[in-house]
Design brief:
- It is a single chain.
- By secondary structure, the chain is α+β, with helices and mostly antiparallel strands.
- It contains three helices and seven strands, in the order ββαβββαββα.
- Strand 3 and strand 4 form a beta hairpin.
């Protein structure tokens, strides 16, 4: 159930909302009026961070322009910090939406990467498809959303 607590939209059974409200302890490394950044309790690599909006939102398209802009701005800052703190080979930024958002509260993963860290994308075989046909459908839909 959604409610307002301390001026923030809050989902009562959401773990991340409870972090925002201070009901669950987290290793918070940055916070401002729109977002909070904390260390992931199940990291892919040491230094794995989560960036969340203070307001309860599920998906990227639900975020305000200000929230999504702040999340990207803070992700850039976190990358600079990761580069200084770790001898990384690169980094990954990712976010899962809809049914694949395992928490139910928007969160962006930012984590250091290493050449032999074992992390990688896995997926099934994609059936043959016509990229130009898919592109035309995207262009049509984008023009309908303006």
């Amino acid at each position: 159930m959604l409610s307002i607590k301390k001026g923030v939209i809050y989902m009562e059974n959401c773990m991340f909302c409870k972090i925002v409200q201070g009901e669950i302890k987290a290793n918070i490394i940055y916070e401002d009026e729109l977002v909070i950044v904390f260390l992931d309790i199940d990291p892919i690599n040491k230094g794995h961070l989560l960036i969340i909006p203070r307001k309860h939102k599920l998906d990227l398209d639900e975020l305000s322009f200000e929230e999504s802009s702040k999340i990207m701005e803070v992700s850039k800052m976190m990358i600079r910090v990761l580069k200084k703190q770790f001898n990384l080979d690169g980094y990954s930024i990712m976010q899962n939406g809809g049914e694949f958002n395992d928490i139910g509260h928007y969160h962006m993963h930012v984590f250091p990467r290493y050449k032999k860290d074992g992390f990688g994308w896995t997926f099934g075989e994609v059936e043959d498809h016509d990229l130009s046909d898919i592109g035309k459908k995207f262009i049509k839909e984008i023009s309908n959303t303006k």
